[in-house]
Design goal:
eight-stranded antiparallel barrel; two-stranded antiparallel ribbon; mainly beta; single chain
């Protein structure tokens, strides 16, 4: 998410006070995920199965070629035939300079696009807002690795 997530926080000095200028950028990136820790399985009284606490890592590549490290924790609810019927979680995207962007995601699973929302960040991403979609473009047969394309907007202060 970062290329277009690169925050160019500008401030203008007006007399004795500073005013932050917001900048909105388009987000376009690809993340290559792998499960680093399997989650814990559960079953609801209605018989729906799922996995919670799964930990995933991704190398994220921005449209301009810059990379970042993305760590996510999530839950996937499964139907009786193990087809995804829902997923939710959160991610921390760590950039080369150490600044982090915090996002959440929710989606229907089953290969359908999920929605992500910026929850804030540190450094150049402090006070950031934004949202967009993530779409799986390929997945390994065992479901333990996949590639996702992210699009949306990010506003930095």
């Amino acid at each position: 998410m970062r290329s277009s997530l690169i925050a160019v926080g500008a401030a203008a000095l007006l007399g004795a006070s500073a005013t932050a200028i917001s900048e909105t950028r388009e987000v376009e990136s690809v993340s290559h995920f792998v499960v680093t820790q399997d989650g814990d399985p559960y079953e609801t009284p209605a018989g729906e199965e799922g996995v919670y606490g799964e930990i995933m890592h991704a190398t994220q590549i921005e449209a301009d070629g810059r990379t970042s490290s993305q760590w996510c924790v999530g839950e996937v609810s499964l139907s009786g035939d193990n087809g995804g019927v829902g997923m939710a979680g959160y991610c921390t995207i760590i950039h080369d300079n150490g600044d982090a962007l915090f996002t959440s995601y929710i989606g229907p699973g089953g290969g359908q696009p999920s929605q992500w929302t910026v929850m804030g960040g540190t450094g150049e991403f402090a006070g950031a807002t934004g949202s967009g979609t993530s779409t799986t473009v390929s997945q390994r047969g065992d479901g333990e690795a996949w590639t996702v394309k992210h699009t949306g907007t990010l506003t930095t202060k």
